[in-house]
Amino acid sequence: MQDIILKIAEIYFRYGIKSVTMDDLARDLGVSKKTLYLYFKDKKDVVRKVINHLIESQKCGISDALNQPNTNAIDKLLMMTQFFARHLKNSNASLTYDLQKYYPDVWDEVIDFKREEVFTHIMNNIHEGIREGIYRDDMNYEIIARAYVSRMEMYQTDLWQPLEKFPLAEVFRTLFIYHIRGIANEKGLKHLDKNIHQWIFN
Cα separation of 90 and 36, whole Å? Predict the structure, then answer.
């Protein structure tokens, strides 16, 4: 089941959702459509299970980044941002469009994940950085965390178009540095300046 969902996710990333029929999926997977219906009730069930899998994989990726030993809050946020950059690099604009137009309730699950769970992780990272003495403690961090999540959502809307001329890795690296320079204190900025040239986004 897991292998089937992974393969379908690759197909959706490549072609979007609307144009891919159950017949297409069966053919590309090398199974009969009857076999496909043993795993899924209908196309909407396929979409929901694929998106739920992607959300769970993002949760695991975030957890891995935030639980790395011998790292501070800046390092952890860097790894989380690198993870999202890699994930979004494989995304497809038509996939997002199809979700929003034809499966709005499934799209809402994606937005809820970002606006609540990712937001919570950003807030926790901020509190960790303050405890470590590398983030400033004199700012309204709910605004900053919400803005951080909104920038991630922007990638999947028309608001991203002015930035499409730049490589995705460069955009994420620039926005990450911009974010850290805004919230880090002198100690945090020293850590940033010391390590910035070895941080890679790809």
Answer: 25
Calpha distance 91→200 (Å, rounded): 20
Who's near 54: CB < 8 A, 6+ residues apart? 9
Cα gap 161→107, rounded to integer Å: 20
Long-range contacts, 48-51 (Cβ 8 Å, 24+): 48/103, 48/106, 49/5, 50/5, 50/8, 50/9, 50/12, 51/99, 51/106, 51/109, 51/110
Residue with tokens 């490549």: 14
The C-alpha torsion from 195 through 142 and 145 to 198, rounded to 10°, is 0
Instruction: For tokens 């990333």, name the residue.
Output: 13
Instruction: Say which residue the tokens 């699950």 belong to.
Output: 109
Does the pLDDT at position 153 exceed 90? no
pLDDT value at 43 more than 70: yes
Q: In the predicted model, what is the mean pLDDT of residues 3-16?
A: 93
CATH class of 44-198: mainly alpha
